[in-house]
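Quick one, tokens below. Sequence please?
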């Protein structure tokens, strides 16, 4: 039996214990997956505060809805679906009520030599944020979080072919907007097929 099967069995036991009234089981389950869930939220929304809000809403929703988990998917797939749905809801609400950024406080900027890698990361985050939310969600799950395309399709509630086409279109847009990084000295290699099927 694989580690993934063992992990899912433990996750299912924790979820069942939570439903049965164990006060610590859900917290333990969240601790096992918090890094990946946070990564999905922050990359889907491209804003740390919005991601924190969406993740909190998602976990509260999962906490309350745990009894309705039917066991058809892995617990982690179910949790990812709840987080992605909360992020997409947050993005839709933000589109209806856009916020105005606060003015810069004029504090000291970071030294120039410490910015190389950070600039690249910011370029990538900005390019991801500019994608349509469906493409961004698919790319975050497949290329960033490493979910297989079939699992990402289950999380997003769409066919596998839809995830593949969203990823392909999103990668095409990223290639155009991030093409300037290819020739930058010392830039890390970009591997578009990483983390699952292309």
């Amino acid at each position: 039996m694989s580690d993934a099967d063992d992990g899912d069995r433990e996750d299912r036991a924790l979820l069942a214990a939570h439903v049965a009234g164990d006060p610590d089981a859900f917290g333990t389950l969240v601790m096992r997956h918090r890094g990946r869930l946070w990564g999905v939220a922050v990359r889907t929304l491209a804003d740390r505060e919005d991601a924190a809000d969406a993740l909190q809403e998602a976990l509260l929703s999962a906490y309350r809805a745990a009894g309705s988990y039917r066991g058809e998917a892995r617990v982690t797939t179910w949790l990812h679906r709840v987080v992605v749905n909360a992020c997409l809801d947050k993005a839709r609400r933000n589109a209806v009520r856009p916020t105005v950024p606060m003015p810069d406080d004029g504090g000291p900027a970071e030294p120039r030599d410490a910015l190389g890698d950070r600039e690249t990361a910011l370029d990538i985050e900005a390019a991801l944020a500019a994608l349509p939310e469906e493409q961004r969600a698919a790319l975050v799950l497949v290329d960033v979080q490493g979910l297989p395309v079939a699992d990402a399709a289950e999380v997003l509630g769409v066919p596998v072919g839809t995830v593949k086409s969203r990823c392909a279109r999103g990668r095409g847009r990223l290639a155009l907007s991030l093409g300037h990084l290819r020739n930058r000295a010392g830039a890390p290699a970009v591997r578009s097929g990483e983390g699952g099927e292309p």
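Residues 3-96 form a domain with the Rna Polymerase Sigma Factor; Chain: A fold (CATH 1.10.1740.10). The mean pLDDT is 80.
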